[in-house]
Specification:
By secondary structure, this protein is α+β, with helices and mostly antiparallel strands. Among the domains are: 20-107 and 120-192 and 250-323, PPM-type phosphatase domain (Phosphatase 2c, domain 1, 4-Layer Sandwich), CATH 3.60.40.10; 328-398, Orthogonal Bundle (Arc Repressor Mutant, subunit A), CATH 1.10.10.430; 555-645, Alpha-Beta Plaits (2-Layer Sandwich), CATH 3.30.70. 38% of the residues lie in helices and 22% in strands. It contains 13 helices and 24 strands. The protein has helices spanning 79-110, 124-142, 146-149, 199-207, 269-272, 277-288, 294-307, 329-351, 361-369, 387-397, 470-552, 570-582, 618-630; strands at 16-31, 34-45, 50-56, 67-75, 156-164, 168-174, 178-183, 186-190, 212-213, 216-217, 227-228, 250-255, 261-267, 314-320, 410-415, 425-430, 433-438, 441-442, 445-446, 555-559, 593-598, 611-615, 634-636, 639-645. Strand 7 (178-183) and strand 8 (186-190) form a beta hairpin. Helix 1 packs across helix 2 and helix 8 runs parallel beside helix 10. It is a lipid-anchor.
Length: 647
């Protein structure tokens, strides 16, 4: 499987070769107070998809003392990585110059005393804005390429780089390649990998309608930011930095410290998959103390990563700064002593080959790894960094190795027949059997004749020996690969069904949430209307209560009058009664009674009902109550009555 893409492809063995391609592309240079070296190896991958850029002195006004280095890790093809390695810098420079010009015009308008002919310096923010704009522009520009537009090429690429000015480092990252700064003999800075499972990246992916499954975008792409990959950049209504995969780089500015800065490493994930930041920096430091050949150091890095198990393309750029580690005579001596020790140990192991036969290289490496008397190995590299030394001795002393044959040895036990055999060499004898080792191959794998003598031994009745061949092994691996692909395809199909179901549920939930929001809005409106109506009701009630209260202020209560004593108009009777009882002289202007009425229903003559009397003028009411209180008790026709407040 493609490490970046989840689909298989290539030969019968998937995206990997039968044996790694170890040829390296190298380059080096010096200028602007620094040296650089780089190395790139295809490794086990079917195609070399990495690319790189190294420029000392940028082709732009005022930037001849600047430098730029970058590594591009392509996936699903090398088209995007190769184009970016040739043209990304020009897009960055163009955008930076525009940002600088804009800044210069603003500065000119703000200051009338400045010299208009003086060059405008590149500010940190202008450079960072130019880098970001350059990435977005080249990504949009490549979208117009016919093969990328019509889907014939679906490639993409990560990008990690560093732009060095005399005062600053500008670290640039888009994807999961990485850059580190080594300062004061420790890792001072490292870029951050853009993986779909990172919370901020996951949020953007989900906001664009995607998902993160098995740590991949929609279960397929293993990086969340990259150039190219246009299948993941077609969500309507979303800007270029809001898509499932974003081309926006993160740019980090670090002020240079010339007396402390030692070196910068840029590398793709084929390096970082098998070495941590600290391991790689410690290993590079130890190699720089042995050799000042930066190409050689980079070659040792990729070889070590290959031997540590990296299955990807590998590219590394090493930028050596003025305070980088220098070659040390002691380090050179110790490294030579270590190499000599390993050579002697390998010779010793091979010279002891006896009944068990000639050991293979894996066995030799395993035995060396358990050697307690081993001198200190290169930090970060370990025994894997010395495999080339060990392999050279092994190849020199291996009597069964042919120059044109692969390093593939098979030990088989066959019935003993004395005498040489054309397909191998008799190595030992044990329990009446011969241990035969062969490395001869035909066009399809191991030589078909592996047994000495006849296929069977009449004296032992052993069954015929089954002849394994490399071709059989490759066929079995091919079938296993096909079976795994079938299983993965079935798994992806089920995952797609789950994703479709989740999308459907997500849509339904969104609709329900919309309905709930609508209902909440309506409920809020109703609550608001109810609150307004309550305020209106309260105001109306107050308005109603106020006249009633005012009206009741003029009322008096008369109790004890017999029922039906009025014999006519009750209001007129009460007016005359009050004047009679309280004295006409107390009311020279007369007494005005608006109305009078009984309270409740009549129950019996023995318990007459009270009366409510409304006096027109409030002062007259007060006078009535005052006089009545002074004349207590008040009686009428022998019946004691009371005149009082209405409660």
């Amino acid at each position: 499987m493609d490490p970046k893409h989840g689909s298989s492809g290539g030969r019968a063995m998937g995206a990997f070769l039968d044996k790694p391609k170890t040829e390296k592309h190298n380059s080096h240079g010096e200028g602007n107070g620094l040296h650089y070296g780089l190395s790139a190896m295809q490794g086990w991958r079917v195609e070399m998809e990495d690319a790189h850029t190294a420029v000392l002195g940028l082709p732009a006004p005022g930037m001849t003392d600047w430098s730029f280095f970058a590594v591009y890790d392509g996936h699903a093809g090398s088209r995007v990585a190769n184009y970016c390695s040739k043209h990304l810098l020009e897009h960055i420079i163009g955008a930076s110059l525009v940002a600088k010009a804009t800044q210069g015009s603003q500065a000119g308008s703000d200051s009338s005393t400045s010299d208009p002919s003086a060059p405008v310096p590149h500010t940190v923010e202008a450079v960072k804005a130019g880098i970001r704009t350059g990435f977005l522009r080249i990504d949009e520009h490549m979208r117009s390429f016919s093969d990328l537009r019509n889907g014939m090429d679906r490639s993409g690429s990560t990008a990690v780089g560093i732009l060095l000015s005399p005062e600053h480092f500008f670290f640039i990252n888009c994807g999961d390649s990485r850059a580190v700064l080594y300062r004061n003999s420790k890792v001072c800075f490292s870029t951050l990998d853009h993986k779909p499972c990172n919370p901020r990246e996951r949020e953007r992916i989900q906001n664009a309608g995607g998902s993160v499954m098995i740590q991949r975008v929609n279960g397929s792409l293993a990086v969340s930011r990259a150039l190219g990959d246009y299948d993941y950049k077609c969500v309507d209504g979303k800007g270029p930095t809001e898509q499932l995969v974003s081309p926006e780089p993160e740019v980090f500015e670090v002020i240079r410290a010339p007396e402390q800065d030692q070196f910068v490493i840029l590398a793709c994930d084929g390096i970082w998959d098998v070495m941590s930041n600290e391991e790689l920096c410690d290993y590079v430091k130890s190699r720089l103390e042995v050799s000042d050949d930066l190409e050689r150091v980079c070659n040792e890095v990729v070889d070590t990563c290959l031997h540590k198990g990296s299955r990807d393309n590998m590219s590394v750029v090493l930028v050596s700064l003025p305070n980088a580690p220098k070659v040390s005579e002691e380090a050179v001596r110790k490294d030579a002593e270590l190499n000599k020790y390993l050579e002697l140990k390998v010779e010793e192991m091979l010279s002891r080959a006896g009944e068990e036969g000639f050991p293979d290289l894996v066995t030799v490496m395993r035995n060396l790894s358990t050697n307690s008397g081993m001198p200190p190995l290169p930090p970060g590299g370990g025994l894997a960094s010395k495999r080339s030394v060990i392999e050279a001795v092994y190849s020199r002393l291996n009597p069964y190795r042919e120059e044109d044959a692969p390093s593939c040895f098979i030990w088989v036990t066959v019935p003993l027949t004395l005498g040489p055999h054309p397909s191998g060499t008799l190595c030992s004898k044990k329990d009446g059997k011969a241990v035969l080792v062969t490395d001869k191959v035909d066009g399809h794998g191991i030589h078909p004749e592996l047994a000495c003598g006849s296929d069977t031994d009449a004296s032992t009745n052993d069954p015929p020996y089954s002849k394994p061949t490399l071709n059989n092994i490759l066929t079995a691996i091919g079938k296993l690969d096909e079976d795994m692909n079938t299983r993965f395809n079935a798994l992806y199909s089920k995952l797609h069904q789950v994703q479709t179901s989740l999308t459907d549920h997500k849509t339904r939930i969104a609709k329900l949430e919309g309905c709930a929001t609508d209902h909440e809005t309506r409920i809020t409106d109703l609550k608001k209307q109810c609150a307004e109506m309550m305020e209106v009701n309260k105001s109306t009630k107050h308005k109603l209560n106020d006249p009633e209260s005012r009206s009741r202020h003029s009322n008096i209560r008369i109790s004890g009058l017999p029922e039906k004593v009025e014999k006519g108009n009750l209001t007129q009777f009460i007016t005359e009664l009050l004047l009679q009882l309280l004295g006409t002289n107390n009311f020279p202007n007369g007494l005005k009674v608006d109305r009078a009425h009984h309270i409740g229903q009549q129950s019996s003559a023995a318990h007459p009902r009270s009366m409510i009397v409304k006096v027109r003028h409030f002062p007259e009411r007060k006078k009535i109550l005052k006089i009545a209180s002074l004349q207590t008790p008040v009686s009428y026709n022998g019946a004691q009555i009371s005149v009082g407040y209405l409660t």
